[in-house]
Design a protein that fits this description.
InterPro entries: Glyco_trans_1, Glyco_trans_4-like_N. It comes from Rhodococcus qingshengii JCM 15477. It holds the Pfam family Glycos_transf_1. This protein has 16 helices and 17 strands. By secondary structure, the chain is an alpha/beta fold. It has a seven-stranded parallel β-sheet with strand order 6-5-4-7-8-9-10, sandwiched between helices. It has a six-stranded parallel β-sheet with strand order 13-12-11-14-15-16, with helices on both faces. Strands 1, 2, 3 and 17 form a four-stranded antiparallel β-sheet that branches. A hairpin with a 5-residue loop joins strand 1 and strand 2. The longest helix has 18 residues. It is globular.
Length: 494
């Protein structure tokens, strides 16, 4: 037996005040038939906010200062802070960008990253230097000393511009700001900052010092330009930090490579090689198996409909050893659908799965703009997706796919039925539309060109970025939905 609403998760921030206060929490879940269940209320005490002490002074490295931007060669020197060199959406975003700019000789690049991975070899083959560093320290003293080390490295390398990739790489941006090097920070995560900090530091045995945690917000506000891949995420951050300097630069992928892959690998040959029948209708879920991707919920709702669609096959690519992954596998077995569901480990050869698929499914409840959606549409694969953040900026319901309400089991099930009831001729029209949208909007050279111009502007005159005229919603124009958009109700007793 599975509980109503099983498979979804949510983390929310309980704001602290000047004094301790109580909050009543209840959880509401909606069953597939539309009936609602609500848990008993639990009253918790939120401790008063404690003043955050200033950071200690770092060990002296002499004069860590930079009087003025100065190009050392005929092109800028750009240091890039990355969180990982393994396979993942944020990592592939950066790899695509750097390889294109390196090929165009936009700048000299140095990548600093705490986690080595398979992407390192390709970066180095493009003459991009890679330095494997260490994770951001959680205690204040080690943080300021590590920041000073990075500042000294940037000065020694004669860095002109810093790019930080992903929200967790704030120490690199902070180190650059301390010595006056301009920063562009690429933010992929669609989390409220307090929630993100919980995810970032939650695995640490020792609770991080709050003055280290606070550097994330401070560094965001002092960054020359914060780059977002989706307008919805950009607007969410403006709600939190109205003074933020932002720009939305949509990213892209390598369209010619995908076109060549399709020409060399027929759909029928790929499907046969993967062990599928010609009559199988393949629903592909591509992405790391983890709570926010909601694969458990997808499996549960697929089990509810597959009996009526015996040719439907669900393929989940991206499993790795984890308790959540184990629970997804157990659910498949307990539900008796192992003949209709295939769970595949993380696979660097993702193109074969897109080539084989009929529809991509994304049940993720937190996404800015998944790379898998761009790649699927380029392969002519329509998308069934939870309508979160930037997804609806590229997926049009009824034209290039189908949208459903996130964390809603009933809507997910209805979405699966909509997909499986779609005729072959309707699917062919949607496939063609996906290809047309991709050809017009998803060329990776577009964001490489925008970044090239940005690097040129920052290296010559960082102040020019600060005059960005921001479009879209202002902080006061729309209601923030950080808590209201979830199925968790908060009440503050008098």
């Amino acid at each position: 037996m599975f509980d109503v609403g099983a498979g979804f998760s949510e983390t929310i921030a309980l704001p602290a005040g000047k004094a301790d206060h109580k909050v009543s929490i209840s959880v509401r879940a909606v069953a597939a038939d539309g009936t609602a269940w609500r848990s008993n209320r639990v009253v918790v005490t939120v401790a008063a906010q404690v003043p955050v002490p200033a950071l200690p002074s770092a060990a002296s490295f002499g004069d860590l200062s930079r009087s003025a931007p100065e190009l050392t060669v005929d092109r800028p020197r750009v240091c890039v802070f990355a969180h990982s060199l393994n396979i993942g959406g944020g990592e592939l975003y950066l790899q695509e960008l750097l390889l294109r700019m390196a090929a165009d000789e936009v700048a000299d690049f140095l990548v600093i990253c705490p986690r080595d991975g398979v992407l390192r070899a390709e970066l180095e083959s493009a003459d991009i230097e890679v330095h494997i560093g260490s994770e951001t320290p959680s205690d204040a003293r080690r943080y300021v000393d590590r920041r000073a080390e990075l500042s000294a490295l940037l000065l020694a390398w004669k860095c002109d511009v810093v790019i930080s990739n992903t929200l967790g790489e704030f120490i690199g941006a902070d180190a650059a700001i301390q010595i006056g090097i301009p920063v562009a920070w690429v933010i992929h995560e669609s989390f409220q900052l307090d929630v993100f900090n919980t995810h970032l530091w939650g695995g640490h045995l020792k609770k991080p010092d709050q003055n280290v945690v606070g550097r994330l917000r401070t560094t965001l506000l002092n960054t020359n330009v914060n780059i977002f891949v989706a307008e919805a995420t950009e607007n969410m951050f403006r709600d939190m930090l109205p003074q933020l300097r932002t720009r939305c630069i949509r990213y892209g992928i390598d369209l010619p490579v995908i076109k060549s892959y399709e020409a060399e690998h027929s759909k029928s040959t790929i499907r046969e090689g993967l062990g599928f029948e010609e009559s199988d209708f393949i629903l592909l879920c591509m992405g790391i198996v983890q709570e926010r991707k909601s694969q458990f919920a997808l499996v549960y709702e697929f089990a509810a409909v597959v009996e009526n669609y015996p040719n439907a096959k669900l393929v989940i690519v991206g499993n790795h050893p984890s308790p959540y992954g184990d629970s997804v596998i157990r659910a498949v077995n307990d539900l008796g659908i192992s003949s209709s569901v295939r769970i595949v480990d993380i696979d660097s050869n993702t193109y074969r799965w897109f080539r084989a698929a009929d529809v991509l499914v994304s049940a993720s409840d937190v996404e800015s703009l998944p790379r898998s959606i761009l790649e699927a549409m380029t392969f002519g694969v329509p998308v069934l997706a939870a309508d979160v953040f930037g997804v609806s900026e590229v997926v049009s319901d009824g034209e290039t796919g189908w949208l459903f309400e996130s964390r809603n089991a009933q809507d997910l099930r209805l979405g699966l039925i909509r997909v499986l009831e779609t005729t072959a001729s309707e699917l062919a029209v949607m496939s063609l539309t996906c290809r047309q949208v991709s050809a017009k909007n998803f060329d990776g050279q577009n964001y490489a060109d925008e970044f090239s111009k940005l690097i040129s502007d920052l290296s010559s005159n960082p102040k020019v970025i600060e005059s960005i005229e921001r479009s879209g919603w202002s902080a006061g124009q729309r209601k923030s939905s950080f808590v209201d958009g979830t199925n968790i109700a908060l009440e503050y007793p008098a």
